[in-house]
Amino acid sequence: MSTRRGRRRGNGEGSVCRRRDGRWIAALTLGRDEQGRPIRRTVYARSQREALEKLQRLRNADPRSAAAARPRSLADFLEEWLENAKRPSVSRSTYRSYRGVLRKYVLPALGELELGAVAPVHIQRLYAAMEKAGASPRLRVLVHAVLRQALRQAVRWELLDRNPCDAVTPPKARRREAAYLDAAQTHRLLLAARGEPLETLCVLAVTTGLRQGELLGLRWG
């Protein structure tokens, strides 16, 4: 992982390099798990010095202990969750969506907190701040869903005893009442469409209830 902007280190010492976004990343292999797979840990920092200090703490940790496998902050955990749990299992667009939501809304507010210190009140304040800033209910619901999913994984990995998202009042998306044509409006629509290129589409729409995407995807065959 070393680059010309970072420091090259010997085998077993880990590596430190600078990312394109300006953050520094330190990585170290802490032995192997029960299946013989390398236990590789990464931490992120705002400066090279901080990255080297975090790397030293990783080297001093006992790789057999649970503490050695625990990310140092919520930001570190979310990065590991995205890369190791989500990226291999979801589509590229979903992965980008998760990363974008976390980077824009969650990390600026909560990223520096220790993973084990994230409390329901922190998450509730995040949702309130988003609402005050004008974030839509749908966006707040999405943030809650992604964060709750990530912290559920932390519980499964035995990094947390419980999911703090389960103790907050989740945002709710407002349901908009759909507008429907009545019988008279439908009759006028079909009269106006008569002889037009979209007549068949209009007839299908009002008689089958298909959605727009389904209608436009139909073929004559």
Structure characteristics:
3 domains, 8 helices, DNA polymerase, domain 1, mainly alpha
Structure description:
By secondary structure, the chain is mainly alpha-helical. The radius of gyration is 25 Å and the shape is elongated. The model is unreliable at 1-11 and 63-69 (pLDDT under 50). A three-stranded antiparallel beta sheet has the order 1-2-3. It starts with 14 loop residues before the first strand and ends in a 5-residue tail after the last helix. Strand 2 (24-32) and strand 3 (38-45) form a beta hairpin. The chain has helices at 48-60, 74-86, 92-110, 120-132, 137-156, 183-193, 199-208, 212-216; strands at residues 15-18, 24-32, 38-45. The chain has three domains: 1-65; 70-175, Tyrosine recombinase, N-terminal domain (DNA polymerase, domain 1, Orthogonal Bundle); 183-216, no CATH class. Helix 6 (183-193) packs antiparallel against helix 7 (199-208).
Would you spell out the secondary-structure blueprint of this structure?
Blueprint: E1 15-18, E2 24-32, E3 38-45, H1 48-60, H2 74-86, H3 92-110, H4 120-132, H5 137-156, H6 183-193, H7 199-208, H8 212-216
Antiparallel strand pairs: 1-2, 2-3
